[in-house]
Design brief:
The complex is a heterodimer.
Chain A (H helix, E strand, L loop, with lengths): L3 H9 L3 H19 L6 H18 L9 H16 L35 H9 L4 H10 L2 H12 L4 H8 L3 H27 L1
Chain B lengths: L10 H12 L5 H13 L1 H17 L9 H18 L1
The chains are: A mainly alpha, B mainly alpha.
Chain lengths: 198, 86
């Protein structure tokens, strides 16, 4: 794959195909992320449009100290926050939400209702192309901050350092949000395939 | 330093430590206790496998296609930028 550096050179020199490649790759992911900061999809679309303008304006100044992707998402998050449509809430560190419903454990903390097996069924449905849309819908249902972290870490495959930089959150907060988000998704898979069997 | 009191981990604690475990953020002693628990607990072993599977499935989501209309709009933005900057 072409390096960020070569890609930037093409973008700066006015290579339209380079820009098309960039928007095809990042427009939708940025839109999904923007939605969690603002009250409507229409506003999120405006935020992403503004982000592209800001990206082009900043292209000459980008020094490549972060990856191109981190830089793009940082601009997006800044745009979304300045739009100010959603008040920036602080993240509760002592999140009381458990990974698994407490009723599934016995009084000693052991499993009373152990996890149902679903991995093979999920793999089959993923291969059949019938699971991705469900996963996207579940991600849309996650609380905003959890969704942001899961999108960046697990969908966009950024490192925890990159995610902290993009969202301006601490490493510990990042990990708590990731844990809650992934735990909720795991539960969604379990519910989905339990229903299928039942 | 260990964050956890008591010697043996309960399943209910294990499910809360999975992300710290996968991120390599447990202390050496907590990591050992986590792994010791897994050795004797098929349910938590399954749970950990499911968390890994969750991460794997999420990582396979392809980017949705951009509508041709939106792509055209953005290319127009790029052309204007190019015209203005050169």
């Amino acid at each position: 794959m072409e390096s960020d550096r070569d890609f930037l050179l093409r973008l700066r020199s006015g290579d339209e195909q380079a820009f098309v490649g960039l928007v095809r790759r990042y427009h939708e992911p940025m839109l999904r992320l923007a939605v969690s900061f603002v009250p409507s999809r229409a506003i999120a679309e405006e935020v992403v449009q503004e982000t592209w303008l800001a990206v082009l304006r900043g292209l000459e100044r980008f020094e490549g100290r972060s990856s191109l992707k981190t830089w793009l998402f940082r601009i997006l998050v800044n745009q979304a926050r300045t739009t100010g449509a959603r008040e920036h809430r602080s993240v509760p560190v002592a999140d009381p939400e458990p990974a698994v419903d407490p009723v599934r454990f016995d009084p000693f903390g052991g499993w009373a209702d152990p996890p149902e097996q679903w991995i093979e069924a999920a793999e089959r449905r993923m291969r059949a192309g019938k699971l991705a849309d469900r996963i996207r819908a579940w991600m849309d249902e996650l609380p905003g901050r959890q969704r942001e972290v899961v999108i960046l870490r697990d969908v966009e495959q950024m490192s925890s350092e990159e995610v902290c930089a993009v969202l301006a959150i601490s490493e510990v907060n990042q990990r708590v949000l990731l844990h809650r988000g992934r735990s909720r998704l795991r539960q969604q898979f379990e519910d989905e395939f339990r229903e299928e069997e039942g | 330093m260990s964050r956890l009191r008591g010697r043996d981990l309960a399943c209910r604690q294990v499910v809360e430590l999975v992300t710290d475990y996968l991120e390599g953020k447990l202390s050496r002693s907590d990591r050992q206790r986590f792994q010791d628990h897994l050795l004797g607990c098929p349910h938590c072993t399954e749970y950990l496998a499911q968390m890994r599977e969750t991460i794997s499935l999420t990582g396979r989501l392809a980017t949705a296609d951009l509508s041709p209309q939106m792509q055209d709009e953005l290319v127009e933005v790029y052309r204007q930028w190019r015209a203005g900057s050169q």
